[in-house]
Amino acid sequence: MLSSYLGYYSLILGFILSVWLLFDSFISLSKKNKNLKKNTILVLFLQLFTVVLSFLSLVYSFINSDFSNETVYNNSHTTKPLFYKISGTWGNHEGSLLLWLLVLTLFIFLFIFKSKNQPTKYKLLTLFFQQIIIIGFFLFLLLTSNPFNFLFPIPNEGLGLNPILQDPALAIHPPILYLGYVGSSIIFSASLAALVQKNINADWAQHIKKWIFTAWIFLTLGIMLGSIWAYYELGWGGFWFWDPVENVSLMPWLCLTALLHTIVVLEKRLILQSWTLILSIATFTLSMSGTFLVRSGILNSVHTFANDPSRGVFILIFLFVLIVLSLIIFFFYHPKESSEKKIFWFSKETTILINNWFMMYFLSVVLIGTTYPIFLEVITNEKISVGPPFYHKLLIPFLIPFLIFMAIGPKLKWIKQAFKKIKIQQFILFILSFLISYLIVEKTSVEHLFTTILIGAAFYLFFITIGEFFKKNINFSQNISHFGFSLFVLSVLFNSLFSSEFSANMKIGEELKFDNNLIKFNNIETFDEKNYKSIIANFDIISVKDTTTFNPEIRIYNQPNILTSEADIKSSFFSDKFLVINLLKGDKLFNVRYQNKSFMIWIWISVLLLVFGGLASFVKRYNR
Amino acid sequence: MYGKKVKLRILFLSFVLITIVLTIFLVLKSLEEDVVYFISPTEIKTLTELNPNKKIRVGGMVKEGSIQASTEKINFIITDFKNEINISFAGAIPNLFEEGKGVVAEGFLRDREFLNAKKILAKHDENYMPPEVKEAMEVK
User: Fold this and answer.
1) What is the distance between the alpha carbons of residues B48 and A159, in angstroms, rounded to a whole number?
2) How high is the ipTM of this complex?
């Protein structure tokens, strides 16, 4: 009860402070001698404090199962373990928006705090733009999604959290993802501020780069956590399904990755100012559109908490306002590119630009694939879905030049590269990559030529980046990320080439042969856990070499009454063995699926390497 | 006539334009080929032509008492309470695949009565219903 009051009123206070900050920064901007007053910083801190307080009081209500709070009632249950009571705070619409707001206020506070050496006008402008976004979210929360609604009479028991969301990876997935998603808001605000101030130069690039890297690291990690969860929890054994909800996180990621590269070009060469700004604006717009698509209930998925049109309309209007605002600012203030600075076609910046365009192409494909079904349904009332073949067909061929440019780009010089400097070693490496690739592909039954070229291109990047590690004065952060990406592409390709699977419906005690293996369904045992009933099965898979025992599980949760499968996964260096079972017609017959997924672990390792590359860029900077 | 600079610019712009047009063409063509249509059992009955090579999705409820399973196969009936279609499927089923619950089957039509499913989808929410079932139920 009390904590709901506290949470609600501190939200209102926070909203008032935001409006005050908006006017205050505007007034300070219109004055001749601009300065960031101590008061402003204090209010900024208070704003963060109110949102943190509001968030903590919601967490407190969740921990104490305070069912007088509607959000807690809808999403929690007394028998739920403490960890999931806490993570339940952001496992729903209202709470996750409060988390958005928390991250928004946290970022602007950190930004002002960390930008002491930046021009005052720039800081004030950033504060101004960020407050517009913050006010939008305050209004959204208070008007359409108040997390502190009261319920009377107070229910004795809550409705519970969807059990597939009760998972450690998924408990931390939203906060990490939001740090990336919402982190792009500060890039958006700061870019608009730099634009208005006509301050887009090497210094600014160096300063904003840190924020771009921060957002990128969290976004990458957040997407990976979601993907890992989908891998072991959804029971399909895949890690990416081209589901619209996954796509909306991939789109800002592609945009942010492109931005990450152009900002370096801007820093070094002072070109592509407009392009950098467009990318900054687009990244945040895509993050917002993603929120709109997921939260409005247009997309049916586990992420859709409630199907409330008024929320969708609100985000749509807000999004529209932000886009129009940023476009107007862009057209009034956009920098005139100095035509004196030409880009020579064979240089580092050209390869970065080319791959930027490739990323924009990837982005367009994903955007069209995600939104086309929505438009078609609105216009013709026809329901369609766009599946993996569409994306694979349109994306994979273009990975070949993309990988090759990734390999040679970093080796080229800025401004102009002389041809003679290209060494014979690189050419040999090139041939070698395709040779190795051919030897691998030859053994498989897939179409040879295309797969050979694709894997060859990935190997080329792989070898080039390994070679770079042995040289002096390399860009370690860039190299390890590119190396990680080559490893990622290789593992994904090998994963799809060499994985095998077998499925059948089996009775207890039954034995079946498949390939050169024998699968034995030994028995089942049932247990009563705190908030679910557990059925644990025992399987043996006997191959020529060894016997592996699996204990896949089925959980029948009491509140809400949902059944989930917990796959048993045996990870090893070269492959994951994955066994999942499901009930079919009572508990007489079980649906069994066994998969041998090659190089699965390497997919996660390679993404971690990408992230590690991002982190390394900070270490390097501090050492300087 | 024009300076070298202008010529270069025109060349560059036409290059960009051609690339964009080609991209759009490529994307639209793939969309046409790879899109999977959602169809209800009733719509299948009224289809004018059947294309056995085109993947489709059929949505509805799993009819009570219709699930029959052998070691390799699962057969069941999807109903929208007006019409029905037989589904044959070999593979892994999702958690919430149950009689009387919503389901979507993706696969190829053999005829108006029979679909060879390659994938079975059910949503991870006990209250979920495929949109076409919802519509069919509301009409009822």
Assistant:
1) 47
2) 0.86
Whether residue B100 sits in one domain with residue B75: yes
Contacts of residue A459, defined as CB under 8 A and 6 or more positions apart, other chains included, come to A433, A434, A436, A437, A486, A490
CB contact under 8 A, A584 and B71: no
Pairwise CA distance, residues A623 & B19, whole Å: 44
B43 and B89 together in one domain: yes
CB < 8 Å to A383, chain B: 37-38, 131-132
What residues are paired with A502 via a beta bridge?
Answer: A594
CA dihedral over B60, B65, B66, B72, signed as positive or negative: positive
Helix (H) or strand (E) holding A610: helix A600-623
Starting from the edge strand earliest in sequence, which strands make up the sheet with A575-584, in order? A500-507, A589-598, A575-584, A568-571
On whether any CB of chain B is under 8 Å from the CB of A584, the answer is yes
Under the banding of pLDDT at 50, 70 and 90, the label for residue A166 is confident
Same domain, B77 and B14: no
- What SS3 state is found at B15? helix
CA of A74 vs chain B CAs: smallest distance (Å) = 14
Write out chain A residues lying below 8 Å of B38, CB-based: 382-385
Q: Are residues B18 and B83 in the same domain?
A: no
pTM listed for this prediction: 0.93
- Would you call A358 helix, strand, or coil by DSSP? helix
Domain span at residue B128 reads: 37-139
Put simply, the chain B residues between 95 and 134 with a CB less than 8 A from any chain A CB are 95-97, 123-126, 128, 131-132
Residues of B in contact with A593 (CB under 8 A): 91-92
- With an 8 Å Cβ cutoff, is A365 touching chain B? yes
Q: pLDDT confidence of A321, banded at 50, 70, 90? A: very high
User: Are the beta carbons of A383 and B132 separated by less than 8 Å?
Assistant: yes
Q: How far apart are the first and last CA of chain A?
A: 53
Query: Angle between the A476-498 and A388-408 helix axes, to the nearest 10 degrees?
Result: 140
Chain B contact for A505 (CB, 8 A cutoff): yes
**Residue A562 and residue B131: Cβ atoms within 8 Å?**
no
A513 pLDDT exceeds 80? yes
Predicted local confidence at residue A374, as pLDDT: 83
- How remote is the C-alpha of A575 from its chain's centroid? 25
Residue in chain B nearest A162 by alpha carbon: B125
Q: CA-to-CA distance for A538 and A553, rounded, in angstroms?
A: 9
CA distance A97 to chain B (A): 21
Same domain, B27 and B41: no
- Sign of the alpha-carbon torsion through A466, A471, A477, A479: negative
- Judgement on whether residues B71 and B116 belong to the same structural domain of the protein: yes
The domain locations on chain A are 1-166, 167-339+346-409, 500-600
The pLDDT score that the predictor gives to residue A304 is: 47
Residue A305, pLDDT > 50, answer no
Check CB contact of B30 with chain A, cutoff 8 Å: yes
Same domain? B60 vs B110: yes
**What is the tally of structural domains in chain B?**
2
Predicted confidence band of residue B124 (pLDDT cuts 50, 70, 90): low
Q: Do the Cβ atoms of B31 and A364 come within 8 Å?
A: no
* Structural tokens at position A215: 């957002």
How high does pLDDT run on average in chain B? 83
Same domain, B29 and B42: no
Q: Does B47 touch chain A (CB under 8 A)?
A: no
Does pLDDT of A624 surpass 90? Answer: no
**What is the Cα–Cα distance from A239 to A605, expressed in whole angstroms?**
14
CATH number, domain with residue B63: 2.40.50.140
**CA A182 – CA A284 distance, rounded (Å):** 8
